[in-house]
Model the fold of this input.
Amino acid sequence: MRQGILLYGPPAAGKDTITAALTELDARYVPFTRLKIGTGKTQGYRMGTPEQLADLEARGDVIYRNERYDNIYVVDRPGLDQAMEGGTTPVVHLGQMEGMHQVTALFPAQWVRVLLWCSKETTAQRSPQRGDTDTAARLAAWDATQADLASHPRAQWELRVDTEAMAPQEAADRIDAIVRASSPRS
Done:
């Protein structure tokens, strides 16, 4: 059975940091690089074109897409298939509950769902520290994420992490324990 990890949370909640801790912990964890159509930061993305996106949509290979910061971000079937080759476990970053639902519903795998959270004040501090030049947009996204989460009170999580209180390595250890406990390979 294929496995994956979904990290949900607002901007600067620690998705990149915890993913790095997971990849250091075990080589089977790999960051999922979403397809990005647009401009700005390229690290951590597969940059694409509107034509590539149209082709994926025509084939029904778009699992989830969202628009934020004047860009389009895509979780695609070929990308997830490739990320799971050889038994690796991709770590997918999402900031919308609709994305969580779409990925779990449209891409068969055993998904471990993790809620990462930090205060808006922490996002305001971390955003410029990590090089963001659009902190105001990140804070608006924080508000949108909080409202999105509040509108899904029955959302189920295998783990909830307050990244202001829990160190990244501890979060990675806890996520790894959940993955291992649910894995037929354990």
In short: The helical segments are 15-25, 50-59, 77-83, 97-106, 120-129, 135-150, 168-182. The beta strands are 3-8, 29-31, 34-37, 45-48, 62-68, 71-76, 89-94, 110-117, 159-162. The first helix runs from residue 15 to 25. The mean pLDDT is 95.
